[in-house]
Predict the 3D structure of the following.
Amino acid sequence: MRVVLVGPGRAGMSLAIAAAAAEHDVVAVVGRSFDSAERGADIVGATPLTVNDPIPESDLMLVATRDAAIEPVAARLARHPVPVPAAVHLSGLTPVSALAPLADQGIAIGSFHPLQTLPSPEAGAARLAGSFIAITAGPGLQDTLEFFADSLGATPFSLDDPAKPIYHAAAAAAANFPLAAFAMAADLFKEAGVPWDVARPLVEAVVANAFELGPRAALTGPVARGDSETVAAQLEAVASASPEWQVAFARFVDLLASLTGRADQFAAVLNKEDQ
Ligand SMILES: NC(=O)c1ccc[n+]([C@@H]2O[C@H](COP(=O)([O-])OP(=O)(O)OC[C@H]3O[C@@H](n4cnc5c(N)ncnc54)[C@H](OP(=O)(O)O)[C@@H]3O)[C@@H](O)[C@H]2O)c1
């Protein structure tokens, strides 16, 4: 496929590099400035353009700006005829209609959201293979986007437009919330004189269990067992050795107690019985 990338940032360049490696032809990289376009274009052997230039003929346009810029950039591009049958943005949250200015030219619009963290072009390109990609599009475009995702070694799945906000909340919960627990654990290990690295096999086993058994069934530990005396001792230790984590630790215990149906049992340990 001939691909035009608009927005040569982390996600856009990850896709452009992966697309070029999969023998797609990245015909143009379009940037806010010519310099940023040129930096990206050089990597994938494309023509650098700015958003004010006419877009060359191609098969698929990727609008990879940050979410708030998708609609204004689509409107700016649509000031010229855009000789492209299909355009997608990469946001998991923003509705497909952000590309309406391009749809007004008869272009099929959709979104193509890699459910992956793409921290830099090179690392992101390597991570796309083996990732899942959420596709929101009408039937004709869906097939094209599934083909494109497959060609990158990724697995496509369909996502309804109205479901995007809750899907995005789920993705943030999966990707970000565990890191709060890891930050706490790393600090508490440090208080014990134990390096964070020793937790790696444990953490990896927990993640594997979460997918093999399901997140609720994978729960082990004193809260899941209903061992409130052990949890009381842990809370005391955290309060004394690392008081900045005391409230957060108690909140995690509270959440786990609710998840395991033990909220009443742990109310006393959490000093909630009078609330
Ligand atoms: N990174 C990820 O992990 C990831 C994963 C999945 C999906 N996404 C999605 O990918 C999209 C881009 O995210 P990102 O992380 O790649 O952001 P980013 O690294 O900040 O890249 C955004 C790109 O858009 C360009 N841009 C911003 N405003 C523009 C404008 N008005 N006109 C033209 N270009 C403009 C930026 O140009 P300048 O360099 O000139 O600022 C930059 O090249 C978002 O929709 C995000 O939700 C990201």
User: Anything to note?
Assistant: The longest strand covers residues 25-31. The chain has twelve helices and eight strands. The mean pLDDT is 97.
